[in-house]
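Record type: monomer structure entry
Structure origin: computed from sequence
Chain ID: A
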Amino acid sequence: MRLSALLFSLCVLLLSSTCRNDSGSATELKMKMLYRTWLHAHEEDQGDIRVYRPNTYNFPPSRGRTGFAFEQNGLFTQYDIAPTDGIEGRKGTWTPVNDNTLRISLEDKKDPDYQLEIVSLENDVLKVRQK
Protein backbone atom coordinates (compact mmCIF):
# COMPACT_ATOMS: atom_id res chain seq x y z
CA MET A 1 0.00 0.00 0.00
CA ARG A 2 2.83 2.41 0.80
CA LEU A 3 4.45 1.74 -2.57
CA SER A 4 1.24 2.60 -4.46
CA ALA A 5 0.83 5.82 -2.45
CA LEU A 6 4.44 6.72 -3.22
CA LEU A 7 3.95 6.00 -6.93
CA PHE A 8 0.75 8.06 -6.95
CA SER A 9 2.54 10.99 -5.30
CA LEU A 10 5.40 10.72 -7.78
CA CYS A 11 2.95 10.73 -10.72
CA VAL A 12 1.17 13.81 -9.36
CA LEU A 13 4.50 15.57 -8.87
CA LEU A 14 5.65 14.73 -12.40
CA LEU A 15 2.36 15.86 -13.93
CA SER A 16 2.33 19.13 -12.01
CA SER A 17 5.88 19.93 -13.10
CA THR A 18 4.97 19.53 -16.77
CA CYS A 19 1.86 21.75 -16.61
CA ARG A 20 2.20 25.36 -17.67
CA ASN A 21 0.08 28.43 -17.41
CA ASP A 22 -1.01 28.79 -21.04
CA SER A 23 -1.88 32.47 -20.73
CA GLY A 24 1.68 33.29 -19.68
CA SER A 25 3.24 31.20 -22.41
CA ALA A 26 0.82 32.62 -25.02
CA THR A 27 1.84 36.15 -24.06
CA GLU A 28 5.52 35.21 -24.22
CA LEU A 29 5.04 33.61 -27.63
CA LYS A 30 3.18 36.69 -28.89
CA MET A 31 5.99 38.95 -27.67
CA LYS A 32 8.65 36.80 -29.35
CA MET A 33 6.77 37.17 -32.64
CA LEU A 34 6.92 40.96 -32.19
CA TYR A 35 10.75 41.04 -31.91
CA ARG A 36 11.71 41.84 -35.49
CA THR A 37 11.69 44.58 -38.09
CA TRP A 38 8.25 45.38 -39.53
CA LEU A 39 7.57 47.45 -42.66
CA HIS A 40 4.30 49.16 -43.51
CA ALA A 41 2.23 47.26 -46.09
CA HIS A 42 0.06 50.31 -46.83
CA GLU A 43 -1.74 48.44 -49.63
CA GLU A 44 -3.37 46.26 -46.97
CA ASP A 45 -4.49 48.99 -44.52
CA GLN A 46 -8.11 48.82 -43.40
CA GLY A 47 -9.53 52.12 -42.14
CA ASP A 48 -7.49 53.17 -39.09
CA ILE A 49 -5.76 49.79 -38.88
CA ARG A 50 -2.24 49.79 -40.28
CA VAL A 51 -0.80 46.54 -41.58
CA TYR A 52 2.89 45.65 -41.24
CA ARG A 53 4.87 42.74 -42.65
CA PRO A 54 8.36 41.44 -41.75
CA ASN A 55 11.13 43.21 -43.63
CA THR A 56 11.84 39.90 -45.40
CA TYR A 57 8.37 39.89 -47.00
CA ASN A 58 8.16 40.15 -50.81
CA PHE A 59 6.51 43.58 -51.04
CA PRO A 60 5.16 45.01 -54.29
CA PRO A 61 7.09 48.02 -55.64
CA SER A 62 6.65 51.20 -53.61
CA ARG A 63 8.19 54.67 -53.37
CA GLY A 64 9.34 53.83 -49.86
CA ARG A 65 8.18 52.05 -46.74
CA THR A 66 8.12 53.20 -43.16
CA GLY A 67 8.30 50.75 -40.29
CA PHE A 68 9.79 49.88 -36.95
CA ALA A 69 11.80 47.28 -35.08
CA PHE A 70 11.07 45.90 -31.62
CA GLU A 71 13.88 44.38 -29.57
CA GLN A 72 13.41 42.11 -26.57
CA ASN A 73 15.18 44.52 -24.22
CA GLY A 74 12.66 47.33 -24.81
CA LEU A 75 14.67 49.08 -27.52
CA PHE A 76 12.72 50.41 -30.48
CA THR A 77 13.70 51.86 -33.84
CA GLN A 78 11.24 53.79 -35.96
CA TYR A 79 12.03 53.85 -39.67
CA ASP A 80 10.91 56.95 -41.55
CA ILE A 81 11.49 57.93 -45.18
CA ALA A 82 14.62 60.07 -45.28
CA PRO A 83 14.89 63.32 -47.28
CA THR A 84 16.99 61.40 -49.83
CA ASP A 85 14.23 58.76 -50.22
CA GLY A 86 16.16 56.20 -48.20
CA ILE A 87 15.17 54.99 -44.74
CA GLU A 88 16.17 56.85 -41.61
CA GLY A 89 16.13 55.14 -38.21
CA ARG A 90 15.11 56.93 -35.02
CA LYS A 91 15.97 55.20 -31.75
CA GLY A 92 13.63 54.93 -28.82
CA THR A 93 12.01 52.55 -26.37
CA TRP A 94 8.78 50.60 -26.08
CA THR A 95 6.99 49.65 -22.89
CA PRO A 96 3.78 47.67 -22.42
CA VAL A 97 0.76 49.63 -21.21
CA ASN A 98 -1.44 46.53 -21.09
CA ASP A 99 -1.74 43.20 -22.95
CA ASN A 100 -2.50 44.86 -26.30
CA THR A 101 -1.02 48.35 -26.10
CA LEU A 102 2.56 49.60 -26.23
CA ARG A 103 3.90 53.07 -25.44
CA ILE A 104 6.51 54.30 -27.89
CA SER A 105 8.99 56.98 -26.84
CA LEU A 106 11.56 58.30 -29.31
CA GLU A 107 14.89 59.63 -28.01
CA ASP A 108 15.02 62.70 -30.25
CA LYS A 109 11.65 63.94 -28.86
CA LYS A 110 10.81 65.48 -32.29
CA ASP A 111 7.38 63.85 -31.88
CA PRO A 112 5.41 63.20 -28.68
CA ASP A 113 5.19 59.70 -27.23
CA TYR A 114 2.43 57.62 -28.75
CA GLN A 115 0.68 54.32 -28.21
CA LEU A 116 0.24 51.38 -30.56
CA GLU A 117 -2.68 49.06 -29.98
CA ILE A 118 -1.93 45.58 -31.32
CA VAL A 119 -5.11 44.54 -33.11
CA SER A 120 -3.64 41.22 -34.25
CA LEU A 121 -0.24 39.57 -34.49
CA GLU A 122 0.53 36.51 -36.55
CA ASN A 123 3.79 35.13 -37.94
CA ASP A 124 3.84 37.30 -41.03
CA VAL A 125 1.42 40.13 -40.31
CA LEU A 126 1.05 42.75 -37.58
CA LYS A 127 -2.03 44.96 -37.45
CA VAL A 128 -1.94 48.03 -35.23
CA ARG A 129 -3.96 51.12 -34.46
CA GLN A 130 -2.12 54.26 -33.38
CA LYS A 131 -3.69 55.97 -30.37
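Annotation 1: Residues 1-23 have pLDDT under 50 and may be disordered.
Annotation 2: The beta strands are 37-40, 50-54, 67-70, 75-81, 87-98, 101-106, 114-122, 125-130.
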